[in-house]
Specification:
alpha+beta; eight-stranded antiparallel barrel; seven-stranded antiparallel beta sheet; globular; disordered N terminus
Amino acid sequence: MKVFKFNSISIYFILAASITACGGGSSNSSSNPASLTSDTTSAITCVNGIPKNLKTQGTGIFDEEWFSLEEGDDSEATPVVFYSNKLINGIFYQNTTNLIKGSAVNNDSDYLDDYVLTPNTFTTAFQYKQTSSGFPLGYVISQSDNTLQLNRFNDTCNIHSDQQINQRFKKIDISGKSVSDLFKYYEFPQTIQTERYISSGVVYNLESINKDILKKLLNDQTKFPQGSTLSYVDQQISTAPELFFSKSDQTDFRNLEEFKKATVLPKGYQWKDDTFSNLKVTYLVNSLTGKRTTLTNAYAGVQLDGKIYQAYLIAEGDLVQDQKQLPNESMDMSETYFNKAAVQTMADALNRVL
């Protein structure tokens, strides 16, 4: 069963999720910019998935470069990695960096599926590759101080509300805070309730290398300089369900009925047959509510050119909220973004313990 790893910008694009922390200097505006469609952007010139005359509406959070601290994957020699995230000419670019010793610079920073299917669109990403600016994860339609409207990368630069997400960031001033402060959530026992700043995936990867790493970070009293800011996604809204799959996800099933019969369903779900962009699809819905649900396994099926593909579904709604296990639980983020003033202090602290 194909497993989908959530990530706010990078995997949900993504580009991803993901997240409730506390601290000074936060902003919680819930305003979302209006979606653009292909009808309103007909003048865009597209070359291999790169729009040549796309202009982002507004100024805001990604007017500056941010560095996301994330888990290292199988292609990384280090347990964690810093990615550089830039907005250039309307395109969201990402690259690995050498801020963490041993990182593979210019490694493929994210894997995009070959096909993305929504109720009204069907796009491909075969042209996705590194450029001189980095890996083009998608198109930034608009931004503000704490919001970003994203359209995923595709070969034809198709901009449609079905393939857009509205992200809200919480920004926290960490000037004068210590490295230790950012890891207090994981201290045991906790003398006072502490919110999460760093993802549990990052902490788990660090401890898998050396169980004493967390203790060393909790003892690190190095202060972040003035102007240091971190941020993370605390809301990520998609207006339409999306199915993701690649050529490698082709199965031997002759039809969707065979696919369904061979798939063991998780408790509380049932099949729903549907049509997305004139293609037959099937996916799981909650047995009680009939609502689509984002699951980390690829339970969906797609019939394309007479072949059956296994796919994973991202349901419409707030992806960040969907990941909560309990109503009052502090939600885990997929990555934490550091601005230029803060990133070197965090990188130095990690390099000291790796």
